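call fold(seq) -> C-alpha cells
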Amino acid sequence: MQSSMEASTFLVLENFIGGKFTPCPSHIDSYDPSTGKVYCKVPDSGEREVEAAVAAAKEAFPAWAALSPDQRAQVLNKMADQIEAHLEELAQAESKDQGKTLTFARTVDIPRAAYNLRFFASSVLHHTNDCSQMDHMGCLNYTLRCPVGVAGLISPWNLPLYLLTWKIAPAIAAGNTVVAKPSEMTSVTAWMFCKLMQQAGVPPGVVNIVFGTGSRAGNALVVQPDVPLISFTGSTATARIITERSAPYCKKLSLELGGKNPAVIFADADLDRCIETTVRSSFSNQGEICLCTSRIFVERGVYATFLERFVAAARKWKTGVPSDPGSSNGALISKEHLEKVRSFVALAKSEGATVHCGEGVDPLQLPERNAGGYFMAATVISGVPQGSRVMQEEIFGPVTCVSPFDGEDQALALANGVRYGLAATVWSRDVAKVHRMAAGLQAGMVWSNCWLVRDLKLPFGGMKSSGVGREGGKDSYHFFTEVKTVTIQY
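ret:
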C-alpha cells in the first residue's frame, strides 16, 4: 500500500464496489491539514456510483445473510487481523489525512478500529431471542431477528476509520451488506481498508465504499429505495436533511449527532485528577470529538483556584506538528473549520468575555513547512453569557468556556440549558450527589470522576438534538435487524 501512495504527487482514490476498485471520472481535492496543501484526489461520486454499489450489496446479501453468526464472526476477526498487521501504516495515513497527532492515531484511532470488529464479532454470538408460552391457548411465541438488507452508513471526518468500523462491524455481523460513504475530507484509511478487506477474504459486495460529498453521494444513498436503513454520525443540521429526505421511504435511522457537553465540578472534587482529565476531555484530538467538554461549570468556592490551575495546564497542552511525539494536538481538519472556530473566540471577546490562553493570546511556534496549516492552541474563555452562541452552539474545536455556579440546582439548570444532550461529566467525592446529578442531567452518557471510559456493550447516544437511537452491543444488533414474532399452536 505504501508504494502506491508514493507513486505520484497526489494520491488518487477509487471507489470499492463489488469487491473491485472502480475509477471515478471526477474528483475532489483533499488537503493535508498540517500544511494546507492538496495531497489527495477523492472520487466525486454521485447517483450512478451509489446505484452500482447498492446493486452489488443486494446481490451479495442472500449468501452473506445465510451464513451462521460464527462464520461471519470469523471474517470480522480476519479484518481486525489485517488492521493490526498494518497499524503503523494506517496511523501514519490517518494523521496526515485528518491532522490529528500520530500518537493519537497510533494509540486510539487504529487500535479501536480493530477492536470494533473484534467486539461485534464476539457480541453477535451471544444475543438471545424472546420466548413466551400461552398454555391456555396451546401456543408458543418466540422472536426471530433478521438482517434488514443493504445498510447505508455515513461516517464523519474526526475519527475516520474508528467510526467507519463502528458502523460496518455490527451491520455485517448481523448479516446485512453495506454501502458506506466516509467523509470526503478523510477518505484515505477507508480506501486502504478496502485493500485489507480483500486480503481478509470479505466476499465481494458485502462491504462497498463510495467516496464523495454529502450533497451528492450521501444524498443519493439516503434516497435510494433499496437501502432500508441509514446510520449517520455528524452534524445535527445534516441529520435534519437526512430525516426529511428519507421520510418518504420510512427508513430506519440511527443518528449520532453533536454535543455541547458540560463538566460540573463541585468544591469537594479531587482537583488534581479533575484538571488533568478535564484538559484532556476539552482538547483531545483538537477538540474534534463529539464527546469533548466545551462548557465547564465550577462551584464558586473553588472557581478562582480551578480557573488559574486549568489555564496553566491548558498552556502545557502543546499544539504542533502531528508527527512530533511532543505534540498533544495537531491541526484542525480544514481552513474553513479553523475560521469557524476562531470566529467563536472573536465573538466571545466582542461580548466581553476573557480569553485566558490560546487563540490570540499565545502564539504558536511552527516550522516553516507548516506555516499554512490549520493549527489552533488550546483556548480557555471565561465570562461568556449563558445565552451567547459561544455557550449554546457546538464549536468542535480546542475551545472551552469556564463559568461559576452556586449549588446543585443552578448547576443542573446551566448544564441542561442547551439544545444538545450527548454527554456530561460530574466531579465530586459525594456519592449521593453524583447519583442525583446523573439522574438530573439531560445527557445520554454521564461520567463521574472520569471521562471517555467506554464499555461497548452499553448504549451510546444522545438526547434532544444530540441524536436519535442508541448504538452499542445489544442496541446496534437491534438497529441492524428486524424483529419478527412467530406464534406456533401445538
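The radius of gyration is 23 Å.
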